[in-house]
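Quick illustration for those who missed Monday's session on complexes.
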Amino acid sequence: MDNPYVFITRKVPEDTIAPIREVADVKMWDYEDTPVPREVLLKEAETATAIYSILSDKIDRELLERAKNLKVVGNLAVGYDNVDVEAATEHGVIVCNTPDVLTDTTADLAFALLMAAARRIPEAQQYIKDGKWDNWSPLLLAGQDVHHKTLGIVGMGRIGETVAKRATGFEMNILYHNRSRNEKAEKEFGAAYVSFDELLDTADYVLNLTPLTPETEGMFNRDVFSKMNKNAIFLNVGRGGAVVEEDLVAAIENGEIAGAGLDVFEKEPIPEDHPLMKFPNVVCLPHIGSASVETRKAMCSLTSRNIRAVLRGEKPEAAVNWNK
Ligand code: GLV
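Prediction with glyoxylic acid bound:
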């Protein structure tokens, strides 16, 4: 029998794919570190036993219907909204992701973004680079405090808990809203469960960490921004699809909220003239939540181990539709 065939949609460190090479033939799309074109992905899917995907690859019903040999999709992310899990399950394809290994790193980034937006750090750096720093003045680039303020976390999973843990060090008051109660966040980090409206009404910092689902899509809209405090800063480290961006632009323009820190966008990548880029009080990052070298390598290794396990008929460490 032929070896399994694994198509990797992006260049990843060679040492991290050793587990896959033990059990399969591998092809990696490593053309100038660019995304794999859709036609190439569809063609590869026709013969692949496994696809090692990244979050910008659409693993949809069309692809899954063509993928007659496919057993597993190993997605290099904790989020898997780019994969049609229902269609994958119907076709007997296991979908794997990379939880846990990125929790601390992503929580670090969420907190860094909060602080950057609160204390106007990118703006302050730009001020020097633009040659504007010619004297010290009492309110020059004065931002908002973080310590003792109220943080409202929307989506209290593992990353939310870990942000809450960091927030305790800043003596913040922590509120959260989630589909279900999170006992650990409440007991260990003093987070208080509140309704969505109460969170919007009270928080100085509103942090979205929800996964993108039909329920969360577009949940941060005009109505929601209008319920936030004028001094509130909105932060998004979940998925851009949770936000109606034109409503966020309007809320910033009209001074309904004080600013934003965004690691994710409705349609990525964004161009430099994206409407949200024009505001000094909006900090934009290119989806780098889990981007430390250590964590990205750990995610790559986990993706490889997930794929190897399924190809060997074993239970992978992280799958979203394993039901055997
Ligand atoms: C990144 O956004 C991830 O889901 O891992």
